[in-house]
Design a protein that fits this description.
- Strands 1-2 form a two-stranded antiparallel ribbon.
- It folds into two domains: 187 residues, MFS general substrate transporter like domains (Growth Hormone, Chain: A), CATH 1.20.1250; 177 residues, Up-down Bundle (Growth Hormone, Chain: A), CATH 1.20.1250.
- The protein has 401 residues and is mainly α.
- Helix 1 runs parallel beside helix 4, helix 1 packs antiparallel against helix 7 and helix 5 crosses helix 12.
- It contains 13 helices and two strands, in the order E-H-H-H-H-H-H-H-E-H-H-H-H-H-H.
- Helices cover 78% and strands 1% of the residues.
- It is found in: Membrane.
- Its main location: membrane.
- It is a multi-pass membrane protein.
- This is MFS transporter.
Length: 401
Amino acid sequence: MSHSTPQTHISTQPGTLANQAAHLSGGKRATRLAFFIAGFGLSCWAPLVPFAQQRMNADSAMLGTILLCLGLGAVIGMPLAGMLSGRIGTKPVITAGAIGLAIALPLLAILSTPITLGLCLLLFGASLGAIDVAANIHGIEVQDVAKAPLMSGFHGMYSIGGLVGAGGMALIIASGLNVATSALVATAVIIACIATAFSGFFTTRSANNHAMFVIPKGKVLLIGLLTLLIFLGEGAMLDWSALLLTKEKQVDVALSGSAYAVFAFAMTISRLIGDRVVARIGDRLMLLGGFLLTGLGIALVAYFDSLPIILASIALAGLAAGNVVPVLFTIAGQQRSMPASQAIAATSILGYMGVLLGPALVGYVAHFIGLILAFLTLAVLMVLAMAVVSAVPFQRSSEHK
């Protein structure tokens, strides 16, 4: 294994151990808030979608086309964020992304034409993609300084942001505030978070000239494919679990939403305790166990008809899947076949492809062989991913023991 010169230099504060501890503490706080902003911002958009459709009087086909702009914006923002993080550091990229969200959210609550809403979703998606990539890069830098696993906890803040955003916006709208005012409240939260985080971000400077578009190579391609696969599983749970329960398991439609709620809550809990688990068992065992148990959980969901067993199986899948992505991003930042910022951008893009394409692929497979067999196929893919894990580099496994 080669040990080349690191691509990024972190400017640490000289002085006493107390100053260094404060510097690390500020970095942790800033990273947690960056992840929170990303999860919060995305989830705040979900309750606004029906209102946007109503303002435009759009049918499902038109709405689906407009919603693609969010994904397109993210795919543009991710490699751009990787390049800029390598050249100017993560602090300005995360800050710009947060400002982009703060501008876009109120506009998404009032725009009423397909073109303007699509353009705004491009900005929104690019801002989310930028924060996603830069926050992961910054999180790995903080983790390297701390010399301890931290990424699961950082990703846990993304999950918490999602829960707070979706629940908070739903409550605010239900309380009687109009949609535009509700979006302004969300914007105020984002501004407060980035203002609090700003002073804590590490200052980085690049030692390399980073290109915007790079082809994933070597171990990064394997890491990206594993990320795509686990996001495909998460996307299937988000978009198809409720339908599986109502159409195949005869669960009352009023309870169908409980499936993803259980999955999301289990993932959040998993990530909040994940750093301690990774420190004990190491990256390799976390990935192997994560894919195996996620596949087992999905298979049990497909096999059993009892609602308590189904929900317990969904919780198992959520607990297992929760820490796979943080570990994969950690490994992407440590490999040496590509600069860390480019590797994380490439991993993010491949993962996002799983989110975008996964639910559609499950739908196509379900059309030909049925939804239960589609879930079983997904479970088999999760187990087969364990073979790919053996080809992934693990530089820190021994340190976690």
